[in-house]
Amino acid sequence: MATEPPFASYPSRVLLVLFAVALIMLRIDALAPPAFSIEEASAHDLQLAFRQNKLTSRQLTEFYLDRIGRLNPLLRGVIEVNPDARHQADRADRERKAKPHGLLSALHGIPILLKDNIATKDKMNTTAGSFALLGSVVPRDAGVVARLRRAGAVLLGKASLSEWAYYRSSRGPSGWCARSGQGKNPYNLSADPCGSSSGSAISVAANMGAVSLGTETDGSILCPSSFNSVVGIKPTLGLTSRGGVVPITPRQDTVGPMCRTVADAVHVLDVIVGFDPYDAKATREASKYIPRGGYKRFLKADGLKGKRLGIVRNPFFDNYSGTPVLKAFDSHFNTLRKQGAVLVDHLELANVNEIYSDASGEGVAMSAEFKLALNKYLRDLVVSPVRSLADVIAFNNKHKHAEKIDEYGQDLFLAAQATSGINETVKSARRNMDRLTRDGFEKLMRQNKLDALVTPGSAVSTVLAIGGFPGISVPAGYDKDGVPFGICFGGLRGSEPTLIEIAYGFEQATKIRRPPSLMQCDRHLDVGPSSCV
């Protein structure tokens, strides 16, 4: 009787062995820790991944550049990327190997996006979103950028904005600029992204950057942070330098972080605060507020305990009467109480109607101050197609199609150009704002011994703007259309430590933020499903 050759079953045995090995590997994979996910990772998460050799700054930078390449044609949150970003990431990786961890900043090797009105002395443009400044050459890095470079951050690119920080036209749409077009809210593409720091908020919300910087004159950090479910810190006037920032008015302009978490925003704030000789008066005065050891020590989960929080219903909450937003805030008030805060409700802010009217003087003063500040900025450029506000107006008229001047106009520019310096009318407007601040917000805070005023969205921005006060916006919910809204904690000058405790305590107690769903983006962007996340 014939017998089977001794190795006839060898192939089948090999298959069985391979199958068994595969099962073992699957079991091992199931037991192994999950791979590190960059999306939604905080700066702390990223630094930990660096130290554990799970990630390099080069890989992280490539991740964000890829995200920008896939999502930015839809969202328009980034104007341009830095051609030297990969080189900076490689340098950070080399430095990490050479230096002990304790000597590196929390932003070392972390990619950051900068609003396109913040100057960088490199291959990137600084244009405030306008073709009028394309090709201009700045004399130096902005003060905050110099600090970021020293901290080892990777300058990833320039974020889009409402053109000229929303001070060209009163009719232009929020989030639009000539260079990048209309910025889109990643939570609802038809919703307002708010401005002027729209791109900074859009980009970090959609994970096109780890952290970002914005600027605010009146609401330009707080509003887009609220509308795009990110954390925005509008610092005390002068706490961060405005040197090298395309100005609106030095009386109200400020630079601040816009990030996905309070902790990330605080890490950025720690890096960018401090004296700058190119904004000497304001930064010297505000330096007294910087706490020894920085701001990160105020990231306390129990930060709400014992805090006195004021609530002014009219007009800040009455505008939301009967809406899901107000219902959400009623729940938030309960959370604040449970976390140990004392809520002082139904307060009245003196002269609030005047503050939010033309009678406040903000518009009058800002118009004159803008012309003077912008003319000085343009004169100081090394190279520029325009050297004055009058030149910018003429440029816009000459390039009407590119700048959409016929459609949106430039009424704010024209009004500013018609001013004649700081005359008695402007001085009177400034005195009126000082009075409104003194008799309004300052008196309310001190008489009621408040640590912060709590308001929805960015409703309180003008109160904070005219007095140079700080505010922090934290994600607070989403409306029926999926559009985010924030909660704002505002305080007196230099109260950032207290506001950070409050904001962090609220964030940790609620953990409301969620990333935007872009699963349907390929129906809006014809580049295939790889553009979606």
From TrEMBL:
InterPro entries registered for this protein in UniProt: Amidase_dom (IPR023631), AS_sf (IPR036928)
SUPFAM superfamilies reported in the protein's UniProt record: Amidase signature (AS) enzymes
The UniProt record lists the keyword Membrane: no
Keyword annotations: Signal
Pfam families assigned to the protein according to its UniProt record, in alphabetical order: Amidase
Keyword Signal: yes
Residues annotated as signal peptide: 1-30
The Amidase domain, residue ranges: 60-461
PANTHER family: AMIDASE, OS04G0183300 PROTEIN
Name of the protein this chain belongs to: Probable amidase At4g34880
Lineage start: Eukaryota, Viridiplantae, Streptophyta, Embryophyta, Tracheophyta
This protein's encoding gene: LOC125312785
